[in-house]
Amino acid sequence: KKNLFSGIQPSGIITLGNYIGALSNFVKMQDDYNCIYSIVDLHAITVRQDPLVLKKNSFELAALYIACGLNPEKCILFIQSHVSAHAELNWVLNTITYVGEVSRMTQYKDKSRKNADNINMGLMDYPVLQTADILLYNSSVVPIGADQKQHVELSRDLAIRFNGHYGDTFVVPEPVINKYGAKIMSLADPLKKMSKSDENINAFVAVTDDKDTIIRKFKRAVTDSDNVIKASKDKPGITNLLTIYSVFADKAIAAAEKEFINSNYGDFKLAVAESVIAKLTPIQEEYKRLLADKAYLNQVLINGAKQANDIARRTLSKVYKKIGFYMPE
Ligand code: ATP
Ligand code: MG
Questions:
Q1: pLDDT tens sequence across 221-250
Q2: What's the fold here for domain 201-288?
Q3: C-alpha–C-alpha distance, residues 135 and 2, integer Å
Q4: Pocket flag, ligand 1, residue 30 (CB < 6 Å)
Q5: pLDDT one-digit tens code per residue, 285-308
Q6: Where in the chain are the domains?
Q7: Atom of ligand 1 nearest to the CA of 198
């Protein structure tokens, strides 16, 4: 089996975007790969986080991973800051990364715009840390949403560059991106990506939102006013809702268009909300049950960190040897 790494930031509660674009694939892939899934808290602090909220989100993300179907018996689940090799390999990789290649990354530019008072070094270094995450585990594949494609391309470049300088060391990773639902859009602005850190809570549906909240958020979703339920470039809002419906109701977009040919937007939005509620209800029940079992979740995270650390340390020693760091034997 090949290795797989991916992660989600505890920068909020995961959204339908994270679920469709990333987490649902994590679950599907766990039988076919050696999967390593991280709660990437080192990444989250590239944007200002309230310490208490960060702590809570990190723990709750562990519960959500499992509630959404990740099995800790099959994959490694851990918190990034528990394995110091991530920060260490990050440093090494910084020395082969050009400032020009990270400063032109779309996410860096986006997040710099949104956090103009805190354009810190970490924000720019984000994709290099992400590269360390991936390369430490000899990962062949990295399931991600479309917004992360550029970062994994950088990871490939850096792996190839390091191997070129120091000899064959890293596996060159491949991104795995959904054909549909790789970029779920904001409900408040269908030209923007849905993001869990959006300050407008109506822009996203969190997987923990209750029934009434989900219905309210879909009812308010920004669309056009021509009352035609059809996926097309000039109808980003309706296209986004059709994509969400098609994933949650497990129907092709064309079938969904046909189903709603005589419906108005109000009925259609309610149907989308209902399809989401039907899938999320059992996840939410499992999530609640898990949150009440703190001892179990802690044990999963302790075991996960131990397993991740074993693999990561091995890779890091190999790297240190290759670059010529002296080691008394
Ligand atoms: P933040 O706003 O803090 O960056 P986020 O919602 O973008 O949060 P991340 O933790 O950055 O979430 O990303 C986790 C995974 O979810 C990544 O693989 C990312 O590509 C994917 N993802 C994020 N947003 C979407 C989206 N709107 N549609 C599909 N996939 C997404
Ligand atoms: Mg993001």
A1: 999 999 999 999 999 999 999 999 999 999
A2: Tyrosyl-Transfer RNA Synthetase (1.10.240)
A3: 13
A4: no
A5: 999 999 999 999 999 999 999 999
A6: 2-177+293-322, 201-288
A7: 2
